Amino acid sequence: MSSTFLAVPLKSTNEVDLAKPLISYIETIYQTSNDLSSEIKEAVQELNKLRNKACNQPLDKHQSALDVLTRSSFVILLFYSQQRVIEGEMRKRDTLVIRFLVYLIIYYDQLVAIENKLPITAAQNPIAFKWKDAFDKGSLFFSKASLTLTDGSFERAAVLFNCGALMSGIAASQAMHTDEEMKTSAKLFQQSAGVFAALKDTILGLVQQVPPYL
């Protein structure tokens, strides 16, 4: 007996240059030495690359993510409440999708880490983030509905949404041939629900203009 599970669709975005405005803000607000300034610029450039990997990189099924996954204890804890990771279970899934999820989580974690020292708001250090409605399919003459806000909390909300959506997609794609696969799917659906609950209870309260589809 086969069952069909629904997955939440991903939101899409356009490329954003984080480096230039963040470096400009740092140089204006903070007094740094030349050596430290170079390190900061390099770190901001890496953050910019991370966003592109997390939000704009197409899914190429020939890439592998096991090396990235095994280095991220946070992701391991997110996927498994137990203290063990079975590599075979990882190989049963689309490893590139897991890589995509890893990048999303790391990028979200970095956004949280910088929010107090590098605020992104309309009044202070504005950076425009445009995200499209995940549930609007658009039409022949009209593209998907989208919203653009100069708000770091909006960016975090959209990234967290995609984390939950991708977890639901991995859960729905499980083969369901064994008890282990069904348990993995159930666990991922539970974690996806937890992400969306956190999105509703905490992150959305920080966004100045909440889009209806969030």
The major β-sheet equals: 2 strands, antiparallel
Put simply, the count of helices is: 8
Q: Gyration radius, to the nearest Å?
A: 19 Å
Question: What letter string, H or E per element, gives the SSE order?
Answer: HHHHHHEEHH
Average pLDDT, to the nearest integer? 77
**Low-confidence parts lasting 5 or more residues at pLDDT below 50?**
59-93
CATH architecture: Alpha Horseshoe
Q: CATH top level?
A: Mainly Alpha
Tell me what the structure shows:
By secondary structure, the protein is mostly helical. The protein has one domain (19-206): Serine Threonine Protein Phosphatase 5, Tetratricopeptide repeat (Alpha Horseshoe). It has helices at residues 19-29, 34-56, 66-70, 73-79, 87-91, 95-114, 152-172, 179-201; strands at 129-132, 146-149. The protein has a two-stranded antiparallel sheet. The two termini are 34 Å apart.
Short synopsis of the structure:
One of its GO terms (cellular component) is endosome. The chain has 8 helices and 2 strands, in the order ααααααββαα.
Please give the structural blueprint.
Blueprint: H1 19-29, H2 34-56, H3 66-70, H4 73-79, H5 87-91, H6 95-114, E1 129-132, E2 146-149, H7 152-172, H8 179-201
Antiparallel strand pairs: 1-2
Helix pairs in contact: 1-2, 2-6, 6-7, 7-8
